[in-house]
Each structure stands twice: as C-alpha cells, then as structure tokens.
Amino acid sequence: MLVLGARTIFALQAPAVGEPVVWVLLGAVPLLVIISRAVRVVGEDERLVVRRLGRGAGVRGPGLVLLWPGLEREARVSLRLVCLDLFCPEAVTRDGVSVRVKATAVAAATDPVRFAMTTDEPLTATTLVAEGVLRRQIAQRDLGELPALATADCAEMADRISDSAARWGVHVTLLDITDIQVPLRGELIAWAQERTGMQREKRPRG
After folding, report:
1. For the chain, what are the domain ranges?
2. Whole-angstrom Cα distance, residue 21 to residue 32?
3. What is the pLDDT of residues 6-65, one digit of tens each?
4. Quick one: how far is CA 189 from the chain centroid?
5. Which of 12, 37, 90, 110 is disulfide-compatible with 171, CB 3.0–4.6 A?
6. What is the per-residue pLDDT for 183?
C-alpha cells in the first residue's frame, strides 16, 4: 500500500487559492481597456461630434460621454473665441494706391457638426474669406476714405464674413482694423500730386 502523509492529502484536496485571483485579473484588464476607450470627458467649452460607421451620430457633451469602441469616432470641437490675424499686403484702393492693412477678427464655432465635417481647417478658410472681404472693401474706397473704413464699416464687414463662413459653422463677432500703411511708391506720389492740383484749382483767385 501507498501511504500518504496528512500534509500531502491536504494539498491534493485543497483548491488553489491563487487561481480565482488570476482569472479575475485576466477578465478585468480587457474590461478596463474597453472602458478607457469608451469614456470621454467633455468640458463646458467644447463638444464632441460623433460618427458611427462613417455617418454622423450627433453632438454630445458637456460632461461624461460614452462611445461604442470600434464603431464610433469623435471629433472634439472647441467653442472658445479665437482671434484671427488678417493681413493684406497688396490691397489697392479705388484711386489706384497700394496699401498694407492689418486687422484682427474674433470668431467662434457655432455649429460643431459643420465645423468638424465640412473642411479640415475651417478657421483658416474663414481667415481667407475675411481677407478677401477686406480687400474688396478697400477697392471700393479712395485712399482718403480708409480712416472711415477702419471705424465705421467694421461691423458690416464682420457680418459679411459671417455669412460666408456659416457654411463651416463659424461666426465672426468682431472685426478690428489695427494698422493701415501706405508704402511710398510711384502711385502714391501721383495721388499726392493730383490731390495738390485739385486743391489749387478749388482755391479762389484773387
């Protein structure tokens, strides 16, 4: 007969205590990975634009947002105001004088879906539109009328920019012309001479 000791028999009959812990860990790790991929925290000043299998699935946030891993993808859109630097190095006035104009536009995303899905760089596109509007406004005015453009017509230009940028979900709230420079060139000298001649003709002869 084979005689086994008491310790040997207990070892054969007692279940392995470490095995349940190992199985719990093996099941918890994939669960934690899935949760980390599914949970998003969205701030008050941003939104998540969600796509499910390539199609739009709406806007989510703020707060805690759950996504289907592998099925849904998100684009985070900031709703904060952004300052856009505008620069027109070769704008030409109606009377043929080249000027350099610097301006600042304040913009924000008002439609997160359009902002995230229409173009890769909506703010860059808005900047180009704003510079185009500024050039056209300068082309409709003489050099002597540019100070009025910098003070009175900025709100109108901001509205025009917003009308064009609405397709990308962007709204321009403010436009400020910060600097207008007139390089000393031949057309400026000709403009000054013409203005001087006009003023002399207007003077009464004694």
Report:
1. 16-78, 82-197
2. 16
3. 455 444 454 554 567 666 666 666 666 667 778 888 999 999 999 998 888 899 989 999
4. 42
5. 110
6. 79
Confirm if 91 and 138 have CB atoms less than 8 A apart: yes
Rounded to the nearest integer, the mean pLDDT of the chain is: 81
Residue 134 φ then ψ, to 5°: -65, -40
Give the start-end residues of each E strand in 67-160: 72-78, 82-92, 98-109
Q: Please give the distance of CA 13 from its chain centroid, rounded to a whole number.
A: 68
What does each C-alpha distance from 114 to 75, 119, 201 come to in angstroms? 11, 8, 57
Q: Per this entry, what is the length of the chain?
A: 206
Please check whether residue 155 is in contact with residue 105, taking contact to mean a CB–CB distance below 8 angstroms.
no
Domain 82-197 has CATH 3.30.479.30: yes
- The model's pTM is 0.74
pLDDT tens digits for range 178-200:
998 887 665 555 665 666 655 55
**One-letter identity of residue 119:** T
CA distance 123 to 109: 9
The residues, ordered by sequence, that sit 6+ positions from 189 with a Cβ below 8 Å of its Cβ are none
Residue 8 token pair: 């040997």
